[in-house]
Amino acid sequence: MSGHSKWAKIKHKKGDADAKRGAVFTKITKEITAAAKDGGGNVETNIRLRAAVARARESNMPSSNVENAIKKGTGELPGIVFETVIFDARGPGGVAMLIEGLTDNKNRTTAEVRNLLNKKGGSLAGAGSAAFLFVKKGYFVIEKDKATEDQLIEIALDLGTDDPLTEGDSFEISCDHTKFEAVKTALAAKKIETSTAEITMLPTSTVKVEGNDVKNVLGLMEALEEHEDIQNVHANFDISEEDMAKLAAEEE
Q1: Is 157 among the domain residues?
Q2: How many other β-carbons are positioned within 10 Å of the β-carbon of residue 52?
C-alpha cells in the first residue's frame, strides 16, 4: 500500500484517539493566515484559503478563530508573518520525504527538523532531490459502503480523473489539482461522502519498506507531523498489509 494512503489512515485513527485539538487548531490557523496573505481573504477566489477554511470547519474550529486568522493574513489585524519552508529529506530504507511547513524563524525550524531526522534515521537532502518524485494532485478516499465502483468510474469518465483504485475497504480517486473542486462537487451531487478530500502531493513511484524500517519510517513521520511548524509530510514508502498487521499487533 502506498505511503500516502496508509499514512492517511494511520493519522485518522490516531487523531480520533489523541484528540490533539490545540495542536490541530494552531496548524490550521497558520495555514489560513498564510493563505490569506498570499492570495487574499476571499474564499471564493482563493483555493488554498477555501481548503484551509474547510479543514477548520471539519475540525470544529470556532468561526471567530477563522475570521481572525484571515484578517491577520490580509493585514486587517496585527499578527506574526509566517514563511513557507520546504525540506527535501531521506528517511529509513531510502524513503523520499517532502516536508512542508510554516514558520516565523526558518533557521530554528531547519535545525529542529534536521535534529528530528537524525534521531530517527533520516537526513536532510539537497533542494529538489525529493520534490521531483511527487506531483500535486486532488485526492479523495471513499469508504466502500458509501459508493459503488461504477459510480466512481462514471465520475472519472465525466471529469477525466484517474481511474478509482481499491485499497482495502476503500476507494481512492486522484485527479489534476485544478479539477479538485469539480470532483468534490460531483461527489457531493451524488451524495457520496468522503473520508479524505484534499489537494496534496502524491508520489510518482514508491520504495518498498520492510522489517525494522517499517516502524522507523512511521515513527519519523509521526515525529515530524507533531512539530508545530510542520504542516504536511509526504513520503513514497510502500508497506505491505502483512507488515502493517504485524506492527499493529506489537503496539497492542
Answers
A1: yes
A2: 26
| Residue for grid cell 509521526 | 222
> Residue 141: which of 173, 165, 175, 169 has the closest Cα?
173
Angle at 84 between CA 79 and CA 90, to 5 degrees: 145
Pairing between β-strand 237-238 and β-strand 207-208 as defined by DSSP bridges: parallel
Query: Nearest CA to 72 among 98, 104, 33?
Result: 33
Both 137 and 185 in one domain: the answer is yes
Same domain, residue pair 122 and 228: yes
Q: What is the reported pTM? A: 0.83
Q: Is residue 249 part of a domain?
A: no
The residues, any chain, with a CB within 8 Å of residue 207's CB and separated by 6 or more, are 93, 94, 95, 96, 236, 237, 238
Q: Give the count of domains, the chain.
A: 3
Residues 119 and 215 in one domain: yes
Structural domain containing residue 96? 83-131+205-241
Neighbours of 249 (CB within 10 A): 8
Q: Give the model confidence (pLDDT) of 125-161 as tens digits.
A: 999 999 999 999 999 999 999 998 899 999 888 888 8
